[in-house]
Amino acid sequence: MSIASISVETLIKEHPELEISIISGEDGLSRKISNSEINRPGLSLTGFFDYFAYDRIQVFGKGEWAYLNSLKEENLEIIASQFFSYPINCVIFTHGNQPHEVFLKMSATRNIPILISPINTHKFITLISQILNKNLAPRTMRHGVLIEVFGIGILLSGKSGVGKSETALELIERGHRLVADDMVEIRRFSESYLIGSCSDLLRHHMEIRGLGIINIKDIFGVGSVRDSKLIELVINIEEADAEEYYDRTGLDEETDEILGVKIPLNRIPVKPGRNIPILVETASMNQRLKKMGNHSAREFNKKLNAYMTERKVN
Could you confirm whether 134 is annotated as catalytic? Predict the structure, then answer.
């Protein structure tokens, strides 16, 4: 898994909502941002650079800006020299505050961009954090179909031609929603949450053998699709194998690990006469019950053990 990054130039051009303008260090616009966290370097400006988070975007709010302006020029030059000696990706001043000339000269010398935004510090950090979390989240691609069934994001996996798209098409006809077909882009937004989506090129389209490429949104309406969804269950559709063991109680819980996150896994064997879409719907509703703390298999097992104990005593 490669480390995601975004250049300072891309951040400026593709996100006008940040209202960023560059005033110094233009030659450093190609610098890469690979850390989604933000640093406000208040302590470092006093000369304490131990544990300085230089790999993050450096945001100067009113407090940092006022402190810099309170320093004598010789002291400011010492601090600026130390500050810009680190491989910083960029420095951003909020509230439209103009940085001191010493900072501008040091920025130009070290090719470290200094940017300005008129937005207040709290709002700016909220906006840029959302942008960075989306762009820098660890990601991978999975072959399969991502569909929302009764509010649960289900990743249908399995070998090519096993019937994933046909199953999804039947579910869409029943009122459920398509997120992605064939290639699912998955991003990890926290230690336990995976969000699945589709590329702009393939969005809302499905490939059905014998029919070709169809547009789900145009055929079934806007309510039949959505752009992204939290993945809460993986269902592997596979050809039935008489030698293979398939769970019949629900007590043996399997998982599929994606980007370090373990997702509940159900394996459904395909046999003549089996209604796969209704099994997927049932799996979705069962997963909803588990989220609410109601584990049907475990509850049945408890009742069975209690019954057997009672019969043994009597």
Answer: no
